[in-house]
Design a protein that fits this description.
disulfide bond, rod-shaped, Immunoglobulin-like, alpha+beta, transmembrane, BG antigen, Ig-like_dom, membrane, single chain, six-stranded mixed sheet, 13 strands
Length: 340
């Protein structure tokens, strides 16, 4: 059989044996008194490590606790697990900072519930919920027991077996992992070695090709030097030959120049002699004007025949052995002046 208190609490149902001490205490109160009381619906709360737990307390009679001074205190250290006053959270123990929360939604109904998150075995112990409202003071105690299911060793040999199996499995897994890692590294190393060998072979081929090209280049350089030497030798020989030829041509030109100068000198002398003879002929010719050849052939109309006719008349001074013959040369003696 369960009874429900007058306050609006979601889990404030108690069996009648639990409620009996509170009823006796209430009966001992003086009639008409309104003494402040704090009631814990569950005096013992259990939880596992890592869970969130709610420690519940309730004002009796129910009243608004927004303006009350509410303190949750750990008996073992006598420190404040949570301290609430006039709507504000005050100082608390270092190990509970950020892990506690006063559920304010129930304050108006007199609920003083405290939530502790991520409990550990060190959180186990008794907690007091103390409330002071004006001149009234009341408190209640709640025991919290935090258990670690993994720390309860019921069968040591099973644990030992599990540890051994775990070690063996871990060793096997580590061995397989190391073997596979080593095999992968070996394969990778073999691949690298094969790649290095291939690159070495390629480098050897390139080196041989470079040597062959170097030898070919050296041969080409030698041929070029030999051809340059031959060309230089031929060019020098050709230049010497042309120089000799030019020297000969220059010598011939000098000789020809001298011959031309000599001819010019002779020509000048001849021209001078010709002019002298021409003057002599003009002064000493006898009967030249009456010569039928000279008259018939004018120097302008037919100069060749005129000069030919003129040549056939000889000068008297040139042939003194024939003083009486006009225009008669030695080859024409006996013709008595008959012109040729």
């Amino acid at each position: 059989m369960h009874f429900l208190l007058g306050c609006n609490h979601p889990s404030f149902t108690l069996p009648w044996r639990t409620l009996l001490p509170y009823l006796v205490a209430l009966h001992l109160l003086q009639p008409g008194s309104a003494q402040l009381r704090v009631v814990a619906p569950s005096l013992r709360v259990t939880a596992n490590v890592g869970q969130d737990v709610v420690l519940r307390c309730q004002l009796s009679p129910c009243k608004d606790a927004w303006s009350s001074d509410i303190r949750w205190i750990q008996h073992r250290t006598s420190g404040f697990v949570h301290h609430y006053q006039n709507g504000e959270d005050l100082e608390q123990m270092e190990e509970y900072k950020g892990r506690t929360e006063l559920l304010r939604d129930g304050l108006s109904d007199g609920n003083l519930d405290l939530r502790i998150t991520a409990v550990s075995t060190s959180d186990s112990g008794s907690y007091s919920c103390a409330v002071q409202d004006g001149d009234g003071y009341a408190d209640a105690v709640v025991d919290l027991e935090v258990s670690d299911p993994f720390s309860q060793i019921t069968h040591p040999w099973k644990v030992a077996l599990a540890v051994i199996v775990t070690i063996l499995v871990g060793s096997f897994v580590i061995t397989v992992f190391l073997y596979r890692k080593k095999a992968a590294e070996t394969t990778k190393q073999k691949g690298k070695d094969a790649e290095l060998e291939r690159m070495d072979a390629k480098l050897g081929t390139l080196a041989a090709e470079l040597e062959r090209r170097d030898a070919k280049l050296e041969t080409l350089v030698e041929n070029l030097e030999r051809r340059n030497a031959e060309f230089a030798e031929k060019l020098a020989s050709e230049l010497e030959r042309r120089d000799a030829k030019l020297d000969k041509l220059a010598s011939d030109l000098v000789q020809q120049t001298k011959a031309v100068e000599k001819l010019n000198s002779q020509w000048s002398k001849l021209q001078s002699l010709k002019l002298t003879k021409s003057d002599t002929i003009q002064n000493n010719c006898i009967g030249y004007e009456k010569s039928p050849q000279a008259v018939n052939y004018s120097p302008l109309s037919n100069p060749e025949k005129h000069h030919e006719a003129k040549r056939r008349w000889y000068i008297k001074s040139d042939y003194p052995q024939y003083p009486n013959q006009r225009g008669v040369g030695p080859a024409h003696v006996g013709t008595h002046g008959t012109p040729i």
